[in-house]
Automatic annotation (TrEMBL):
Annotated organism of origin: Columbina picui (Picui ground-dove)
PANTHER family, per the entry: PSEUDOURIDYLATE SYNTHASE, PSEUDOURIDYLATE SYNTHASE 1 HOMOLOG
EC number of this enzyme: 5.4.99.12
Binding site for substrate: 184
Self-association state and partner proteins as the record states: Monomer. Forms a complex with RARG and the SRA1 RNA in the nucleus.
Compartment(s): Nucleus
Gene: Pus1
Protein name (record): Pseudouridylate synthase 1 homolog
CDD domains named in the record: PseudoU_synth_PUS1_PUS2 (cd02568)
């Protein structure tokens, strides 16, 4: 009917022709679209392949079982505000910021676990403070056990932070709670022990045997259980948690580096409070230098509030953490390995020589943190209680307050 109407109604025919023309255009357009479609489909299929590969990787990651592990960490703490991450304080960079970023980038943990560390049951053994280094820090967490896991994590870390070892542990393992003891070292220039009445040239000073023996006799006094309320802040003399057990403390043989003589003090204790190690060392230095009498040690463990000087944070290193009870129970159960790192000892030694010791030595030479701190010792009145001398130097600023401290153990996490 439409066809027979075409000659009779020119206007309608015109409209139909226009309609047919546009339909033809659309048809040819759709043809050209169809012609283009394979190419588009090609891109699309490429995209799908890419997505599929990503999904495969994700599936693979999901298939990689999540397991509780511990990582053996070493790091130079200079330039960091300690170990522990401060969520929401991005201007204060910590070791854990770099570690978590590397764990996410390597595919060991999903991104949301990096944002909420509880999701991977993360726990550090000791919270080292600003500027403090570690040669044997241990963290426990749940990760996907991907291939070449250590190499992949380390590839996303700066060279002054290394993961040196990994071991599987029990599902309920918590590196802080299961730790029986911690060993710290404190590296210092030996001129710190020179008597105050002697004019000392730092570069040429060498520690004599008699002074070293005196240092070790004093350090040995710390062994056993004592009330260390004077060696930290915000702990009263009757606070049970101020009682701490020290297993050993001694100063090793001195050695020369870049014309300056250094020595390393080692201390092993069940746990330590904030600033405790630095104050223990600070008091011994004050006695050896002749500022304080030996009797101040006994007095400091009593109820009286004693003014104990705090040695600089530079030089403090978390050497290793101990898991004796855990090792006895699980170390030989056939499923888990003991948390001992004999095979990694060489890597630890190399890291210390490469990153930790040079940082301590160079910073000491450039910033003279020990020299500056020694100059503050005369302002302490070691014969009076803190209350009596507080007004004398409440406004004096100790440069070591800006350094790192030995935050670790149960009180600083």
């Amino acid at each position: 009917a439409a066809r027979s109407a075409v000659p009779q109604v020119p206007a309608m025919a015109e409209g139909l022709r226009a309609a047919l023309g546009s339909r033809t255009k659309r048809a040819s357009g759709s043809g050209s679209e169809a012609a283009e479609r394979p190419e588009e489909n090609g891109h699309h299929s490429k995209r799908l392949k890419g997505d599929a590969a990503e999904e495969d990787a994700e599936d693979q990651n999901k298939k990689s079982p999540k397991r509780k592990i511990v990582l053996l960490m070493a790091y130079s703490g200079k330039g960091y505000h300690g170990m522990q991450r401060n969520m929401g304080s991005s201007q204060f960079k910590t070791i854990e910021d770099d570690l978590v970023s590397a764990l996410v980038q390597s595919g060991c943990i999903p991104e949301n676990h990096g944002e909420d560390m509880k999701k991977m049951s993360f726990q550090r053994c000791a919270r080292t403070d600003k500027g403090v280094s570690a040669a044997g820090q241990i963290v426990s967490l749940k990760v996907r056990l991907i291939d070449d896991i250590l190499e992949k994590i380390n590839s996303h870390l700066p060279s002054h932070i290394r993961i040196l070892g990994l071991k599987r542990v029990t599902g309920g393992f918590n590196s802080k709670n299961k730790c029986d003891a911690r060993t710290y070292s404190y590296m210092l220039p030996t001129f710190a022990f020179a008597h105050k009445d002697h004019d000392v040239q730092e570069e040429v000073y060498r520690l004599d045997r008699e002074t070293l023996n005196k240092v070790n006799k004093l350090l040995a006094c710390y062994k056993g259980t004592h009330n260390f309320h004077n060696f930290t802040s915000q702990k009263g003399p009757r606070d049970p948690s101020a009682r701490r057990y020290i297993m050993e403390m001694y100063c090793g043989e001195p050695f020369v580096r870049e014309n300056m003589e250094f020595a390393v003090i080692k201390v092993k204790g069940q746990s330590f409070m904030m600033h405790q190690i630095r104050k223990m060392i600070g008091l011994v230095i004050a006695i050896v230098k002749g500022y304080a009498d030996e009797s101040i040690m006994e007095r400091s463990w009593g109820e009286e509030k004693v003014d104990v000087p705090k040695a600089p944070g530079l030089g403090l290193v978390l050497e290793r953490v101990h898991f004796e009870k855990y090792n006895r129970r699980f170390g030989n159960d056939g499923l888990h390995e003991p948390l001992e790192w004999a095979e990694e000892e060489e890597k630890i030694a190399v890291f210390k020589e490469q990153y930790i010791y040079p940082t301590i030595i160079n910073t000491e030479r450039e910033e003279k943190s020990m020299v500056n701190w020694l100059n503050t010792l005369p302002i302490h009145d070691f014969n009076s209680s803190v209350a009596e001398v507080h007004t004398n130097h409440k406004n004096s600023k100790n440069s070591s307050d800006l350094e790192g401290s030995d935050g670790c153990g149960d009180d600083s996490d």
